[in-house]
Specification:
Layout: H1 2-12, H2 17-25, E1 44-46, H3 48-56, H4 60-75, E2 85-87, E3 89-98, E4 108-117, E5 126-137, E6 152-155, E7 162-172, E8 175-184, E9 188-190, E10 197-199
Parallel strand pairs: 1-2, 5-8
Antiparallel strand pairs: 3-4, 3-6, 4-5, 7-8, 9-10
């Protein structure tokens, strides 16, 4: 009976690093799939204001539980999703670095970007206290040359299916800043100025224990 309960726990919580590794060793981790907007997992899209309002209001425990659920859904190809959140809006790229074997996803690039929001219809977009880490999984080095600090990036559920797989909070000068980690489930991304989409590759094996933000934590 005890071994059966352990088995259920391992299969039921693949986001736990030791469970993921055990399932990977026996070939029971599903191959991550590419989604199209027409068959996307059920879930709403939030802009920067919506993301901030949602996550600033949660407790640390609620945020931790959401992170676990989102990672489980991602690993299982959203077999039974709950609370899925997509990102809409404009972001200013602040940093770009290659992904390595020490990261959650081992190949491609990681983009760090700040949300840009127009205070009103007459004012230019300004930085908003929502940071994003965008994982762009890809083979080869070409993707690294397509994005640079200072570029603008526009994401939308109807194009990239940018899904939140992690969310964190930190204090910035007494105010709360939200940090989200995102993967485009369409595995395609529009370049600077909305130019033709770049095709990406669904990642292979993941390292769940490495899904920590580059710049902040709770």
């Amino acid at each position: 009976m005890a071994s059966w309960l352990v088995c259920l726990d391992v299969f039921g919580r693949p986001e736990v690093p030791r469970h993921y590794e055990a399932l990977r060793m026996i070939g029971r981790i599903p191959e991550l799939r590419r989604f199209a907007p027409g068959d996307a997992p059920a879930g709403g899209a939030l802009d920067a204001r919506g993301l901030h309002a949602k996550f600033a209001a949660l407790t640390d425990e609620e945020t931790r539980m959401l992170r676990a659920r989102w990672l489980r859904d991602f690993i299982t190809n959203f077999r039974d999703p709950a609370g899925t959140v997509f990102v809409d809006g404009e972001f200013a790229i602040e940093r770009v670095r290659p992904l390595t074997g020490d990261d959650f996803i081992s190949s491609g690039i990681l983009i760090g970007a700040r949300a840009m929001v127009k205070p009103d219809e007459f004012t230019s977009a300004a930085p908003y206290p929502v940071e994003m880490e965008l994982f762009l999984p890809a083979e080869g080095s070409r993707i690294s040359s397509l994005f640079a600090s200072g570029d603008k990036l526009v994401l939308a559920k109807g194009h990239e299916l940018p899904v939140v797989i992690g969310a964190w909070r930190r204090k910035e000068q007494g105010a709360t800043s939200i940090h989200v980690q995102v993967v485009p489930l369409a595995y395609a991304i529009r370049g600077q100025g909305g130019r033709e989409a770049v095709r990406l590759s669904p990642p292979g094996a993941l390292r769940p224990e490495k899904l920590l933000p580059d710049t902040c934590g709770d």
